[in-house]
Amino acid sequence: MAEHAVNPDHVREHPTWKQYKWVAAILTIITILEVWAYYIPAFVASSAFVPSLLLMSAVKFAIVVMFYMHLKYDHKLFRVLFTGPLVVAAATLVALVFLLATWIR
Amino acid sequence: MTSHAAAAEGHAHEHHYTTTGLDNRKVAIWSFIGSECMLFASLISTYLIYKGRSVVGPLPHETWTDPSTGAVFKPILNIPITSASTFVLLMSSLAMVLALAAVENKDKPLPANAGWWDRQLASSKLWLWCTCILGATFLGFQAFEFTSFVHEGLTLRRNLFGSSFFTLTGFHGAHVTVGVIWLGSLLAIDYKRGLRPSDTLMVDIAALYWHFVDVVWIAIFTLVYLIK
Question: Using a CB-CB distance cutoff of 8 angstroms, which residues of chain B are in contact with residue A28?
């Protein structure tokens, strides 16, 4: 019983202060790029606008989850607990938007 | 049962370890965050489905003229203000990881040549204060935005955009408010008895919640504010 119950070694190595600083800098740069893209009318009118914004947002999301939430360094069960519902939620979102947006029209 | 095993069991009860070897509080917060993903996905879906279907203004990105009164409503979203609040929330996440690192490393002695900055970096109170203040600043931005929208004629009942927008961002704001109160309670503990490395998990759980609120905003900022 005891060998199952006590395992305090699940806390892995975390990023250093320098890595945190770099993560913050990258997040800031991506945010600036997103807002910059919003103010370029030619780019907004192009078909690349929405995919590029979604990509930048996804990169920011992944960076925060991996480095700030330590999911990159933590136990795989936590990855499953987070990515499982996230995939279901994202699939539901995409399905609902496509189905209902078409249906309401 | 040996005395070692008995001691281990007592330790296990104190720290709530599960059969996976993981603390059940951390398993619980990740499960909670997973369920919250679904909540926000439903709110974002609702917003996106109703996007562009409002029959009266104000509208998010387009000018709208009321045909009966001739009143002109400008695009209502204020991107510069929201960009600033997004930056504030991102920086609050940085402050939160530094607060966690400060608690985690509290027992480690500073190097002999540690300067003023190194000592500040090791202060959990400083970083918790920073996170709290940045979170409250974000809420201030949101209160300003909501107030100005109401003054410009956009209310929860005005049109589909207003209903779905206020519901989505209001839910997010409520989560930020809970986070600020949670951080305030950690600060109170830090002042009362001092947060120790043994409290790392307690701070880690609050940090996970705070970062989740941040990643939700990353999605909202792009899907609601930037994509026209």
Answer: 87, 90
Phi, psi of B122 (to 5 degrees): -90, 5
Q: How far is CA A8 from the centre of its chain?
A: 28
User: Which residues, given as ranges, of chain B have pLDDT below 70?
Assistant: 1-18
Residue of A69, A75, A76 to mutate for B, most B C-beta atoms under 10 A: A69
CB contact under 8 A, B37 and A23: no
Domain count, chain B: 1
Mean pLDDT of all residues in chain A? 84
The ipTM of this complex is 0.85
Contact across the interface for B86 and A31, Cβ inside 8 Å: yes
Which of B21, B30, B200 lies at the smallest CB-CB distance from A82? B30
Domain containing A37: what range?
Answer: 15-72
CB B132 within 8 A of CB B187: yes
Find chain A residues with C-beta within 8 A of B26's C-beta. Answer: 10, 78
- Residue B108 domain boundaries: 23-226
A17-36 confidence digits (pLDDT tens): 788 889 999 999 999 999 99
DSSP state of B57: S
User: Same domain for A84 and A58?
Assistant: no
Q: Are B139 and B18 in contact (CB under 8 A)?
A: no
Give phi and psi for B24, each to the nearest 5. -65, -20
Q: A40 and A88: one domain?
A: no
